[in-house]
Design a protein that fits this description.
Elements lengths: L1 E3 L7 E6 L2 E2 L4 E8 L3 E8 L6 E3 L2 E4 L8 E3 L3 E4 L1 H4 L7 E8 L6 E5 L3 E6 L2 E6 L2 E7 L6 E8 L4 E7 L7 E6 L10 E3 L12 E10 L2 E5 L10 E2 L1 E2 L4 E5 L3 E4 L20 E4 L11 E6 L7 E9 L2 E9 L8 E5 L1 H7 L16 H8 L17 E3 L22 H13 L5 E4 H7 L9 E4 L5 E2 L1 H12 L3 E4 L7 E2 L1 E3 L2 E3 L37 H4 L2 E6 L7 E3 L19 E2 L13 E5 L10 E6 L7 E2 L8 H7 L3 E7 L5 E4 L16 H15 L13
Parallel strand pairs: 3-28, 29-31, 29-32, 32-34, 33-35, 34-45
Antiparallel strand pairs: 1-8, 2-4, 4-26, 5-6, 5-27, 7-26, 9-18, 9-23, 10-15, 10-19, 11-12, 11-18, 12-13, 13-14, 15-16, 16-17, 19-20, 19-25, 20-22, 21-23, 24-25, 27-28, 30-37, 36-37, 38-41, 38-43, 39-40, 39-42, 42-44, 44-45
Amino acid sequence: MKMSVIHDAMAVAGYAAPWHATAGSAIDLHLSTAVTVNAVRVIRLDMPKPQAMHWSVERLGDTPRHESFDLGSFLRIGTAQLVRTDRVEGVSFEVFLTRNHGDRAIVETDSFALTLADDGLRFRLGDRLLLSGQPLPARDWLRIDIRSTSTGVALDVTSKDLLAPFKLHREFDAAWKTPGQDLLFGASLAHDLPTLNAKFASVALHLPSGVASWTFPTRLTDAPLISSGAAALELEAVNLPTFCTTSSRWNGSSFDPRLVPSHYDAIHCHDDDMGPLRWPACFRASLARDAASGVYAFEVEHERGTEQIVFFVVAAARRNRLLFLAPTATYLAYADEFLPEHLYEWKCQDRGQQFAIDNNLRSLYDYHSDASGVSICSYRKPKATLRPDYNYPLCGGPHNLPVDLHFLRFCHANGIAFDLTTDHALHESGLAGLEGYAAVMTGSHPEYMSMEIEDALRRFAAAGGSIAYLGGNGFAGKVAFKGDLMELRRSPLEAGRTWDGPIAEQSFAITNEPGGHLRASGRGEFSLTGVAISLMGFDRGRPFTRTPASRDPATAWLFEGVGNETFGDTGMVLGAAAGYEVDATDAHLGTHPDTMVIARADGFPDSFVHDATRWYEGGDLQREGRRCAEMTLRPLASGGMIFSASSVAWLGALPASGMNDVGRITLNLLNRLGAASTGTSRDARQPT
């Protein structure tokens, strides 16, 4: 269904494409607006004060207008494909209905329609309603056949459930008419109804010359799907449904679609799916050829105020010794998070959060209306919560981008020079994007990354580079990228405040590789940084206290100028340096013996909950003893080091002006890393 953008919470919304670019290129701004746009300029956000850039911003095409979203995915065999056949004599397919309310189309064209209503199944042939009120089972694979017969039209519906078999056979004395318009699976021809929440598989058209059939691939594709058999016809998957889901052929013998592709030949359509938007570009910024890498935004001035739509300029070549890795995978995973108030206590309001709710947008933390998880999204959409002034309702304060901007502004204010890249850019470049740098710095919450990103970082460190992991709950979840798309398949082990995917559907549609935790693939947090999430909570955080290991000659330099044993008792994230999500070591799960715990935070409120994936052989007593955050330092045989702040709140505890102990420790670290020898060389491409 086409839905006009609701602008009550935000008068202007939009997105930049591409999301990252290098100096000398261009970035377009795509807008929807309910007000008059007066001016657009580019500003740099990561400076101590936002800096206006004197770059050309060209107006494109018409004046920005009020746009719409297409909500809901479905399958389509277009009119042009149907007219290529002599005559369609029937259609058959498999469908697995999930949760639907109100009227929905199962399959519809101009000559017939099989629809679902609250009172059951309805079948229409032309203008005649031939069947209504027929109950139909949900969450059971059904095979549906509609075909011409010698005496009229037949409808057959049979289920796969052996314990509760369902069979419907009806013959109608009515003339069959071959379709003359689009044949849609899961959508009404007029697009005036919500689309169907259902899986589809094994679609076939019955022709005089035989059967043209589609076996859906396990890999996501944006190209039309070509039938086999009697004709080569195109079928489109519209508006980004979920590929690589279990079909009626799945029997539990394998969880890998690469081994049993026929078990994963179903496509799951949802009434709130939303693919990449195609709003027209309204403005184009030409980036200066000498543009510094950093965090930028289109600042849109309108009659009610301004909005800032963020993009990134990434380094094409090394200018500095330190590289900041902007966690755009995490930014995109959280963007437009729903946070339904019946599940979560809101500590503040935010206009971006309300915009997401008003417009039925979904993040990768949300679930569809049929309770299946949202697993794929595009950056070509408004990311209304990705703003410098964003306040996260669960924390009542900044989260993600604004915290990372606070760190980058601190760096600029204190003479720490750096280049910037993003998760998306590093995924594309691999290790080559890190070559020549002494160290990589992370943001406050680098939770998600692809295997390619993690592999590049691991090889970088193995070749002498250092990693300053300045956040918490990082290097944890695996994602896959394809152009503007990012996919996240969650594991049932990821119990907590988000959806859990069925273990059978953990594999990515983009690559068919397993999703879930990076550590489940033999990589991830413990074997790289030495720590992983231990606690999560949204009440006041805690300060860190130095350990005896912090006085070892190998680590004492980090605390030069730090006058207090305990530090970090203030901050913009939950009021302290250790909070929201914090990490700790675990030798059982892979922390290397060389990892030194140099500071610890404990005494967290009871509202901070343990990570559900950790098991303690000592039971409750041992578990209670591990209610802590552990800051660590690990020297590497290659000559580099890995520092772990082990807290999402760490960067928020940096001073906005002046200096404090968190600032001194961070500066000591970055000055040491910036003075180190260059990290990688080209022979670092060899496996480690």
